[in-house]
């Protein structure tokens, strides 16, 4: 299931989250331009291996930022989307 938050620029950022480990730093996975989180990270077993080792894992959903329905190039116009997710998920302190 995808989670989401509204970035400081007003756009909605969608991401996946797996695992619940807090002892180790979380892992943020970013897929390539022509793929998605499931193709690159879930299907090959990478997410499962990281979670099995006690890591929280996060990955962007598709292009993550959707300005208009089906706007798959939005992430290219907003290259800081990965940083926005990382900042959002990192506890203050």
Compose a concise summary of this entry.
With 93 residues, the chain is an alpha+beta fold. Helix content is 28%, strand content 25%.
Q: Could you explain how this protein is built, in words?
A:
The chain is 28% helix and 25% strand. It contains four helices and four strands. It has helices spanning 37-42, 46-52, 74-77, 81-89, and strands at residues 3-6, 12-18, 27-29, 57-65. Strands 1-2-4-3 form a four-stranded mixed beta sheet. The radius of gyration is 13 Å and the shape is globular. The mean pLDDT is 75.
Ends apart, CA distance between termini: 28 Å
Instruction: Estimate the helix proportion, in percent.
Output: 25-40%
Radius of gyration: 13 Å
Largest sheet: 4 strands, mixed
The structure class reads alpha+beta
- List the secondary-structure elements in sequence, H or E: EEEHHEHH
Main features:
single chain; 93 residues; four-stranded mixed β-sheet
How would the blueprint of this fold be written?
Blueprint (H helix, E strand, L loop, with lengths): L2 E4 L5 E7 L8 E3 L7 H6 L3 H7 L4 E9 L8 H4 L3 H9 L4
Parallel strand pairs: 3-4
Antiparallel strand pairs: 1-2, 2-4
